[in-house]
Specification:
Structural class: alpha+beta
Cofactor: heme
CATH class: Mainly Alpha
Shape: globular
Enzyme class: oxidoreductase
Protein name: unspecific monooxygenase
CATH topology: Cytochrome p450
Order of helices and strands: HHEEHEHHHHHHHHHHHHHEEEEHHEEEE
Strand order of the largest sheet: 1-2-7-4-3
Number of helices: 18
CATH architecture: Orthogonal Bundle
Strand content: 5-15%
Membrane topology: Peripheral membrane protein
GO molecular function, one term: oxidoreductase activity, acting on paired donors, with incorporation or reduction of molecular oxygen, reduced flavin or flavoprotein as one donor, and incorporation of one atom of oxygen
């Protein structure tokens, strides 16, 4: 009898989870439909607590930019709370978030982010990337790990003052953890766990894999922190970790200080993960689109030949002379819509927004999809078309609707670095290789294999043919 009851309980639980997954998928895919009925601001119940959805450029801009302080809170994300325990930058709030973000921005800038010095590092990594791709000898390969190594090495040079060889096993292990986490976080099961976090305490599932992966990355980072503590020279900081450790010493008598080992560990892990996975996924998705749209790829390579040639490395100055390439890079980010609803926000106080009263702490969902795929700003938004960012004369055309990094006070910390990496890495690849698909371009499917928190491209192979 007990066995029957147990089996029935499991069956009911599975059916319940299945129905919740269907409901979540419906909500996330029908936001545009809901906005047509209820307007650009509406409430969505994902579980027992209400979330306020902002749909369309005007509503998103008004909240995140015009009322930036009021909408600068970080909304609840139960899995991250389990992993980070509110430490670090990405999922913290209030004084902790403000102090850590201000310090991180200043330190990253001091180590060259947005400056010529970091451009040199990215160029050097681009050359290493090309050499690694040459080793494939034009044979079919999955570019996932190789493309992940390049941006990871750039952020490692800032945080750890070191880069890895592409075959380093520690490096490959870290890459595998980051890739697996984004894939799992974008799965329906994690969306269910976000609504009913108690499930994570009682049921097995892929959420445990994410926690193990984060523990692995954190143990590696902690090892590096200990090495830095042993060799620290307060008069000669080498990297981000050194700067944080020096700040900790300066504030050792401040009982309220946010500069603690826990915040250092989580902040470095935040920077490490965010500075690696989003850029590498964008590059991987971008190459897939370029494989499919061979005419677009040919135009980019023609512009590279005209502006840069074959005998020097691309540099950021080239970008202003390459409107078509710039348009393609923007269109890749617009089209793939990497993080469709951004990371959840929350209001930091009671807010009156467009005649609606939003209580303090309410979770805010910003539909970046509704901005990046606005059909008035980008005609035929479901079509991959660099013309979305070109005027009638073929000049690059900026758009306020370009928000792949979100906007306002919570905008991605590494936006400038990510844009630099995308330009230098992809132009260097296209300068040195012809991209050869292993199937007919018209048969290439660019539909994401995961489409919840992030949009993950399907696995694929291609050949890098030296030119």
């Amino acid at each position: 009898m007990g066995v029957i009851v147990y089996v029935e309980a499991i069956t009911i639980t599975i059916l319940f989870i299945y129905e919740i997954q269907k409901y979540l998928k419906l909500c996330l895919t029908k936001m545009s439909t809901f906005s047509k009925v209820y307007g650009p601001v509406f409430t969505l119940y994902l579980g027992l607590k209400p979330s306020v959805v902002l749909h369309g450029y005007d509503a998103v801009k008004e909240a995140l930019v015009d009322l930036g302080e009021e909408f600068a809170g970080r909304g609840s994300f139960p899995l991250s709370e389990k992993v980070n325990k509110d430490f670090g930058i990405l999922f913290s709030n209030g004084k902790r978030w403000k102090e850590l973000r201000r310090f991180s921005l200043m330190t990253l800038r001091n180590f060259g982010m947005g400056k010529r010095s970091i451009e040199d590092r990215v160029q050097e990594e681009a050359r290493c990337l090309v050499e690694e791709l040459r080793k494939t000898n034009g044979s079919p390969c999955d570019p996932t790990f190789i493309l992940g190594c390049a941006p990871c090495n750039v952020i490692c040079s800032i945080i750890f003052q070191k880069r890895f060889e592409y075959k380093d096993q520690n490096f490959l292990n870290l890459m595998e953890k980051f890739n697996e986490n984004l894939r799992i976080i974008s799965s329906p099961w994690i969306q269910v766990c976000s609504i009913f976090p108690a499930l994570m305490d009682y049921l097995p599932g892929s959420h445990n894999t994410i926690i193990k992966n984060f523990d692995y990355v954190k143990s590696y980072v902690l090892e590096k922190i200990k090495e830095h503590q042993e060799s620290l020279d307060v008069n000669n900081p080498r990297d981000f970790i050194d700067c944080f450790l020096i700040k900790m010493k300066e504030e050792k008598n401040n009982q309220q200080s946010e500069f603690t080992i826990e915040n250092l560990l989580t902040t470095v892990t935040d920077l490490f993960g965010a500075g690696t996975e989003t850029t590498s996924t964008t590059m991987r998705y971008g190459l897939l689109l370029l494989l499919k749209h061979t005419n677009i790829t040919a135009k980019v390579q023609e512009e590279i030949d005209q502006v840069i040639g074959r005998h020097r490395s691309p540099c950021m100055q080239d970008r202003r002379c390459m409107p078509y390439t710039e348009a393609v890079l923007h269109e890749i980010q617009r089209y793939i819509d990497l993080i469709p609803t951004s990371v959840p926000h929350a209001v930091t106080c009671d807010v009156k927004f467009r005649n609606y009263f939003i209580p303090k702490g309410t979770r805010i969902i910003t539909s970046l999809t509704s901005v990046l795929h606005d059909d008035k700003e980008f005609p035929n938004p479901e079509v991959f078309d660099p013309g979305h960012f070109l005027d009638e004369s073929g000049n690059f055309k900026k758009s306020d609707y370009f928000m792949p990094f979100s906007s306002g006070k919570r905008i991605c910390l590494g936006e400038g670095l990510a844009r630099m990496e995308l330009f230098l890495f992809l132009t260097t690849i296209l300068q040195n290789f012809k991209l050869k698909p292993v199937i007919d371009p018209k048969d290439i499917d660019t539909t994401p294999i995961a489409n919840a928190f992030g949009r993950v491209p399907p696995l694929y192979q291609l050949c890098f043919i030296p030119v």
